[in-house]
Fold Class B sortase.
Amino acid sequence: MKKALRNGVLAILTGALCVIGYLIYNEDAEHAPAKKEWESLQEQVVIQKQEKKILTIDWNSLLASNPDVVGWIYVPGCGINYPILQDNSNTYYLNHTLYRTYDSYGSIFLSASNNKQFTDDNSIIYGHSVQYVGGMFTGLKNYADSSFYENHPYFYLLTPVANYKCKVKSFAKTTEDSTFYKTHFSEGEKSSILSKMQSEAQFSSLNQSDLENGLITLSTCDLDYGLNSNHRLLLVGSKEITKEEINLE
């Protein structure tokens, strides 16, 4: 009886693994063209300098490919190294690539409510989380681990005008109605906004001066709640212009 039960459990587990394997295979096959696009782009923006890989962007070439490009985002340790696009509806780049081909993984994109110079009080950058195979903003979940949060204190935003080194100030597991999605702060409400952000965050060192510098918030779905929930993962940085070379891990 026990042997039959054990064999039955093993059969179920094996079947489940086969289903997962099939889904991964199908996803890889479906998104292979888009994946090739991203990998090619990521190779083009790297300069090898001795043993270092330096991130550098040819903006003329990138904008010639698509004038909707507004920047580039690099988050060390998360596999995030992508161009940022912007349309006027927050819908097109949910399922289109830089080269305007359809793909359900979409692109990384700046909120339509933000200006493309990233000079708003809080600029929101969106990307999908992808089950099984990763990519896009999936790696933001790494910041849920306190040691990872402490050991990866910066991410980088590059634009045609300036490069920014963004000091990580908060990580939040929250919902889509979070205070972190507010893009403009009046002077009189900054104190209450700061308090709300601090209370919503899993980790936070946000202070008043961060709100003055301007925030960059990276947003993705929290897959712990499934694909269609309103739960989100948010990584928030305070931006500062940098002239230093950006070394890729």
